[in-house]
Amino acid sequence: MGAATPIRNLSARDLEPILAVASKLAAPFDLDTMLGEVVSAARHVLDADRASVWLHDAATDELVLKRSPDLESVRIPAGIGLAGACFRHRRLINVPDCHADERFDPTMDRQTGYRTRCMLSLPLIDHKDVLVGVLQVLNKHSGVFAEDDETLATVLAAQCAVALQRVRMMEALMEGELMRQELEIARSVQLGTLPDSMPAVPGYDVYGTFQPAGLTGGDTFDLQIFDQGLLVVLGDATGHGMGPALTVAQMQAMLRMAFSLGADLDTAFTQVNNLLADMLPADRFICAFIGLLDSDAHRIRFHSGGHGPILFFRAATGDCEVHRPTCFPVAAMPLPALRAAATLEFAPGDILVLISDGATEYRDPQGEEYGHARIHEVLRQHRGKTMAELAHLILESVRVFARGAPQEDDVTAVLIQREIARPPVASSFKRGLDSLDAISGFVGAMFASHGVDASLRPPVEFAVEELFTNMVKYGKGGAAEVRLILARIPGGVEATLIDDDSDPFDITKVPDANIDLPIERREPGGLGIHLVRRMVDSIEYEYREELRETRITFSKTVPSGPGGAPTTGGGHVHD
Amino acid sequence: MFTIENGPDGVVRLAGRLDASHVATAQSLFDRLQGAVTLDCRGLEYISSAGLGVLLKTQKQLMASAGKLRLVGVNRHLRDIFRYSGFDQIFEIEPLE
């Protein structure tokens, strides 16, 4: 709207209330308070009996008049009445006698018994030209609204528009902030359900990983050892946000409680299902695989409430069995009776793969789903990998398949493999540097026979040979041979060197070499142990005085996972 | 097995395993080097801390007469060893492509 006509005789008495209003309008009020301030400012400045603010609701294209908190708001289509006309034309309307104006809607007057005589309607337009609503000022105490009143009202309306728009935006922002905070809390609740570390199950390699979507999904997994066996859970609660996060947290807490109290699988599943069915709203449920692995009998018994497909890779044939859910989702309804648990028998090398629908239903840009055949392909192509490596290879295959399509749901995977038994190998070596070639050959043969990742061979060989060389150099020169034992461990190898004719010398206590010295001050020697410590994951020294036996054990594994992937597994949470 | 061979281009080729059992042979061969010498390490499969000692001693000797060793074709594992031992600050090292 155009600039207001200057007021010819603007007195200090007129200006003072406007400035007072301006300062109030800058205050961080909530919308209702701000509306009250605008109304009272308009009445005060224009010496009017009443004022009201109609705010535009863009969603419905209505003008909304907020009244006192206990009265419902009045809504009119933006275009009806004097307010509507003012809004549509973005122009001030000054009506000295409303009941003589055909645009005036007398309904309100009739309802309230109030008589509107004269009225100023002003469009509320902020400094960015956004039309916020309409300000109406009714019944000037002394006569009708004059030209000066129009000018004053226009100035006031502009200020009110800015203030109202600011408050509305602040409130929208705060709503978003509250939502973001809620999502963060939900995410931390959800992350809290994940195990801190992967349990050590003799003869098995178990791994779980969780890759959160941008918004909170409702995935969880659990791998926890109880007297009854290894609890294996993969769950996916419906919906996003706080609800599903709490739901999976509740389910997990109940399951852990039930199993630590000694419940069997059927009882725990039924009780948790029935309790959750009572507690949760009708539209909430959890697709969950809940199983117990007996690692001695090599058997997993499970109920799968709505979670499928369950993939079971058979190492002997390279085939992949696809098992379906055993019953409807957890908490969908109370279970009158439970079918017997399903059972899978692990042969050496077999792999159970549980993966949430965030992966199998991940869509590429053309809308095709990832499915599960590609997982089978990964399993077939990467024999001999650890479950951590396989999990990351599967997630990587999902990522490649998606070709940049955004992740819309949590992706969670649990992999369990019965390891192929490969007993450790041992050999003894004559105490002398000419044994080094034989040691190198022995390490190479073990890597081949036990399927150890070839990238580990140089550091393992280095460590073994340095430790052996030390035993030769500092030994008594006796006839006793040095014994070397190599064992396959998940993701790598463990080596033990035994010298049973030695004085105590704790290599783990040897200080590091100072590698920052200039060349003229560096001396040959002293680097062996320094380097070994950097090559291996862990190293232990043991000395048995009565046997004069030194035993040094170190392990070396492939670093798990491509660095920095947003996954959690093995106790690592990257988010 | 460890071999050291003087190429016609003045480049010295190392091959095999430079471990503790070969350091004496290696040192006697390195002691003959003079000036700025390029060591081609493409065939060097393995080096132990004793082997590092030989390289350090040789580098010191050469630097005393304004010479130096330059290592080319160094594989990833050897590079790790050079880095962990601080030798990457003492030698000019060119990785294996």
Task: Give an overview of the whole structure.
The complex is a heterodimer of chains A (575) and B (97). Chain A has three domains: 163 residues, GAF domain (Beta-Lactamase, 2-Layer Sandwich), CATH 3.30.450.40; 230 residues, 4-Layer Sandwich (Phosphatase 2c, domain 1), CATH 3.60.40.10; 133 residues, Histidine kinase-like ATPase, C-terminal domain (Heat Shock Protein 90). In chain A, a hairpin with an 8-residue loop joins β2 and β3. Chain A has a six-stranded antiparallel β-sheet. Helix content of chain A is 34%, strand content 25%. Chain B has a five-stranded mixed β-sheet, with helices on one face. The longest helix of chain B has 16 residues. At the A-B interface, α11, α12 and α13 of A face α2 and α3 of B.
Task: Identify the notable features of this structure and list them briefly.
heterodimer; A: 575 residues; alpha+beta; Beta-Lactamase; Phosphatase 2c, domain 1; Heat Shock Protein 90; 3 domains; six-stranded antiparallel β-sheet; five-stranded antiparallel β-sheet; 23 strands; elongated; disordered C terminus; B: 97 residues; alpha/beta; Transcription Regulator spoIIAA; five-stranded mixed β-sheet; 3 helices; 5 strands; 36% strand; globular
CATH class of the largest domain in chain A: Alpha Beta
Extract low-pLDDT stretches of chain B: none
- Let me know the number of strands of chain A: 23
CATH topology of the largest domain in chain A: Phosphatase 2c, domain 1
- Tally of separate domains of chain A: 3
For the termini of chain A, the CA-CA separation is: 51 Å
The 3D shape of chain B can be described as: globular
Give the strand line-up of the largest sheet of chain B. Answer: 1-2-3-4-5
Helix fraction of chain A?
Answer: 25-40%
Number of helices of chain B: 3
**Sequence of strands across the biggest β-sheet of chain A:** 3-2-1-6-5-4
Q: How do the helices and strands line up, and which of them pair or pack?
A:
The complex is a heterodimer of chains A (575) and B (97).
Chain A: H1 12-25, H2 31-46, E1 48-57, E2 62-65, E3 74-77, H3 81-89, E4 93-95, H4 107-112, E5 119-125, E6 131-140, H5 147-191, E7 204-211, E8 219-226, E9 229-237, H6 242-260, H7 265-279, E10 286-294, E11 299-305, E12 310-313, E13 320-323, E14 342-345, E15 351-355, H8 357-360, H9 373-381, H10 387-402, E16 411-418, E17 425-429, H11 436-450, H12 457-474, E18 482-489, E19 492-499, H13 528-535, E20 538-544, E21 549-557, E22 568-569, E23 572-573
Antiparallel strand pairs in A: 1-2, 1-6, 2-3, 4-5, 5-6, 7-16, 8-9, 9-10, 10-11, 11-14, 12-13, 12-15, 15-16, 17-18, 18-19, 19-21, 20-21, 22-23
Helix pairs in contact in A: 1-2, 1-5, 2-5, 5-6, 6-7, 9-10, 11-12, 12-13
Chain B: E1 2-6, E2 12-18, H1 23-30, E3 36-47, H2 49-64, E4 68-74, H3 76-84, E5 92-95
Parallel strand pairs in B: 2-3, 3-4, 4-5
Antiparallel strand pairs in B: 1-2
